[in-house]
Amino acid sequence: MTTHFEIELEKLKNVIIKIGSLAEIQVSESVKALLSEPIEGKEVKKTEIKIDKLDVKIDEICQSIFALYQPVASDLRFIMASLQISNEIERIGDLAVSVIKRSKSIKDKHDLIAKFEIAELAKNIEIILMKTNESFLTRDEKIIEEIFILNNKIQIKSDATVLDIIAEMRLHSKTVVSGTNLVIVLKHLERIAKHCTNIAEYVHFMVNAKIIKHEKFEDKHLNE
């Protein structure tokens, strides 16, 4: 027979899955706003509100579990990780909204995106978040490693592109405003990827009771 404690843990898991799915939608919309056309702000706002409400709900569920039960071992790690994961996802949602808003201020957006080959980087942001949500579902350490390696690629590409955009702004003053907004967008995308690696670290802790840092996977990849 399923206990009330087990029911609460399953509820917590399902809410994490739901908030992760909403973050995927928000990030997908932000990539669409950057690479193609403006996004309807009303739907973006609705999703943002849902994410914020679920973030609060996760806090409430965790507080209730701590108040009514005495979770230990793997259950305690799951609850602790869930609180952190929820926080990271909420930040991802906020960053995605900022990307959407900033994208509206980039004139000649398509030319700049093509010139600096930003489309692949933006698509990788969608991929890394999908992998992150998958890692929570599967607890697969191979997927966690893939997240860390992909984050490293995103960071390298973002840093190089920012330098290229700055060089372009120095040569052509008319690109300063759009270039500045594009740099801010890239930094937001880079932060989204970083939050994904943070979540992957919490998932690893949840499963293995061990704190890891993604740098060890990045170093391994770079030395191959």
Q: What is this structure, in a nutshell?
A:
This protein has about 220 residues and is mainly α. The protein has helices spanning about 5-35, 40-70, 75-105, 110-115, 120-140, 140-170, 175-210, 215-220. The chain starts with a helix and ends with a helix.
Characterise this structure.
Helix content is 85%, strand content 0%. α1 runs antiparallel to α2 (41-68), α1 runs antiparallel to α5 (119-138) and α6 (141-171) runs antiparallel to α7. The protein has 224 residues and is mainly α. It is built from 8 helices and no strands. The relative contact order is 0.13. The N and C termini lie far apart (50 Å). The longest helix is centred in the last third of the chain and has 33 residues, at 176-208. The protein is elongated, with a radius of gyration of 19 Å. The model has no long low-confidence stretch (mean pLDDT 91).
List the topology elements.
Layout: H1 4-35, H2 41-68, H3 73-103, H4 109-115, H5 119-138, H6 141-171, H7 176-208, H8 215-222
Helix pairs in contact: 1-2, 1-3, 1-5, 2-3, 3-7, 5-6, 5-7, 6-7, 6-8
Radius of gyration over C-alpha positions, nearest whole angstrom: 19 Å
Please provide the ordered H/E string of secondary-structure elements.
HHHHHHHH
Total count of helical runs of at least 4 residues: 8
The low-confidence parts are none
Give the beta-strand count.
0
Helix content: over 70%
Residue share in β-strands:
under 5%
Largest sheet: none
Q: State the end-to-end CA separation.
A: 50 Å
Question: Kindly state the mean pLDDT as a whole number?
Answer: 91
Q: Looking at the structure, what is the overall shape?
A: elongated
